[in-house]
Automatic annotation (TrEMBL):
Known catalytic reactions: beta-nicotinamide D-ribonucleotide + ATP + H(+) = diphosphate + NAD(+)
GO cellular component, one term: cytoplasm
Record lineage: Eukaryota, Fungi, Dikarya, Ascomycota, Pezizomycotina
MF terms (GO), sorted A to Z: ATP binding; ATP hydrolysis activity; nicotinamide-nucleotide adenylyltransferase activity
Organism encoding this protein: Aspergillus turcosus
Protein name according to UniProt: Cytidyltransferase-like domain-containing protein
Pathway the protein contributes to: Cofactor biosynthesis; NAD(+) biosynthesis
Entries under InterPro entries matching the protein: Cyt_trans-like (IPR004821), NadD/NMNAT (IPR005248), Rossmann-like_a/b/a_fold (IPR014729)
GO process terms (BP): NAD+ biosynthetic process
Top-rank taxon, per record: Eukaryota
Cytidyltransferase-like domain ranges (all copies): 55-113
Keywords: ATP-binding, NAD, Nucleotide-binding, Nucleotidyltransferase, Pyridine nucleotide biosynthesis, Transferase
Length: 289
């Protein structure tokens, strides 16, 4: 994509973001990328049976994000679905820098194109055409359960519609941290979400988050009633799916590593971010100091 096209994309999101922040809305879809490129013949759209939600800071979108999304979409390819890439403009834990939100939104759209290309190359089954579109959304809500409620209450998606939130294990730990649920600081506010929706959690065994066995033990403890004293319910464990992350021996991929590579070894972006995202980073330099 030419540099002026990137600048036009960025300007589009800059203007849309400004309107959203000035509005009273808490959630808005700023753009959508159609999945028609996955289909040889356009099929009549069906009501989606599931909404996958990938909520991240996308700073920048990486191949880890792509793996999380594509593995979920290819797991049940016959179910009509949509994917929401969601960016919070008020993140509870992470600062808004170094990349501006409009740059991240532009990269999210490019990431959506990369993801569709990956799905087309990965699966020859026509069932992968059940992904109808990828939405680029923003929310003012910093906390997980509030974001899910805003999606549910919006007029964007059919209601009721099961949401499957695609997260990493580190996010699961934050979701089950009572400090995020004042004033009582119990896990009870998770009840409405986990009675209707699901979590699909990619494990990330490492020194910080523990081994695969330790991460599975977190869910087992919930299932055996180990969080009941905090308001957690055993049956919630049935709404949480743990899935494999990177294979043994594979290099770890993260947005942090991508930002480090931009400053020190730009060639490493080849294995850290998808191709369209990489070209945007190298052309527009959103992480220039």
């Amino acid at each position: 994509m030419a540099s002026n096209s990137y600048q036009a994309l960025r300007s589009h999101y800059q203007a849309a973001l400004k309107r959203f922040i000035a509005s009273s809305r808490n959630l808005e879809i700023l753009n959508s990328v159609s999945s028609n490129q996955l289909q040889e013949h356009k099929q009549p759209s069906q009501a989606p049976g599931v909404l996958y939600v990938l909520d991240s800071s996308f700073n920048p979108p990486t191949l880890a994000h792509l793996r999380i999304a594509s593995s979920a979409l290819l797991e049940k390819p016959s179910v009509p679905s949509r994917l929401l890439l969601l960016l919070a403009t008020q993140n509870a834990d992470k600062p808004s820098k170094p990349a501006d939100f409009e740059d991240r939104l532009a990269m999210m759209e490019l990431f959506a194109q990369d993801l569709l290309s990956h799905l087309r190359a990965t699966s020859s089954s026509p069932a992968n055409a059940s992904l109808q579109q990828i939405d680029i959304g923003v929310t003012k809500k910093p906390y997980f359960i509030d974001k899910a409620a805003e999606i549910e209450q919006s007029d964007v998606y059919p209601n009721p519609l099961e949401q499957v939130h695609l997260t990493g294990y580190d996010t699961l730990i934050r979701i089950f941290n009572p400090k995020y649920y004042p004033p009582e600081h119990t896990l009870q506010p998770l009840g409405p979400f986990l009675s209707q929706h699901r979590l699909r959690v990619t494990m990330r065994p490492d020194d910080e988050w523990g081994s695969k066995e330790e991460q599975k033990a977190f869910l087992l403890r919930l299932a055996q009633g180990g969080r009941e004293n905090e308001g957690g319910k055993r049956e919630w464990a049935q709404r949480i799916q743990l899935v494999e992350g990177k294979k043994p021996g594979e290099r770890p991929v993260s947005s942090t590593k991508a930002r480090e590579a931009i400053q020190t070894n730009p060639q490493d972006l080849d294995w850290l971010v998808p191709s369209n995202v990489r070209e945007y980073i190298l052309s527009q330099r959103p992480y220039a100091e």
